[in-house]
Amino acid sequence: MNSLKAIVESIMPRLEHLSERQKRVLQSAVILFSEQGYDKTTTKDIAQHAQVAEGTVFKHFKNKQTLLYAGLIPILKNNVIPVALTEFKTELTLTNDLKTFIDKFVDNRSQFIYDNRVLIKVLLNEALTSVQLQTIVINLFTENLLAQLTPLLQKLIDQGYMRDVNKEYAIRTIVAQTFNLNLPMIIDANKSRDKAFDEFATFVKDSLYYSLKV
């Protein structure tokens, strides 16, 4: 399982519509936003990390917000997140029953959220006030996540492991419970996953399993 930062690093060389300097600026923005947050990162920080003049950043992106919305978010939407979801689906495809599916989903996405918690907080903070970002998130859920997971749930239903429930509702419930489990780490990036987290994770997985099993 790769972090968003690692996926950006792997796909950036293939984005031929970007100049080499634009690639370096955007990749540096992802790294710094992931490590220290959006508010604490300046265009000077990004320029220094990308080893370009600060004027180069402004040449391609008028300000930090433009860099985020015109540069970074489209790449996350069109290139990075689809790769992350495909990797995730591949791992889930290897599960053979409902309990394993739920355990893998909660554990895998919890690790993904933890690894990307600072960048996720940046995107969530922006989504609170940005209709554009809200639309992107909704479309990613409906067009990507639902499309990828629905056949897997149908397979579990057909094999007799899972009740024949509304699959969209089931996916939304699993996603919501997993997000709620990890919310404290998104709010406070310094918070570690302790014994209480492990106990809550077990409770969440058991609750989901017993609510969906035949």
From TrEMBL:
One of its GO terms (molecular function) is DNA binding. InterPro entries: DNA-bd_HTH_TetR-type_CS, Homeodomain-like_sf, HTH-type_TetR-like_transc_reg, HTH_TetR, Tet_transcr_reg_TetR-rel_C_sf. Residues 19-79 form the HTH tetR-type domain. PROSITE patterns: HTH_TETR_1, HTH_TETR_2. Residues 42-61 bind DNA. One of its GO terms (biological process) is regulation of DNA-templated transcription. Keywords: DNA-binding. Pfam families: TetR_N (PF00440). This is TetR family transcriptional regulator. It comes from Staphylococcus arlettae. The lineage of its organism: Bacteria, Bacillati, Bacillota, Bacilli, Bacillales.
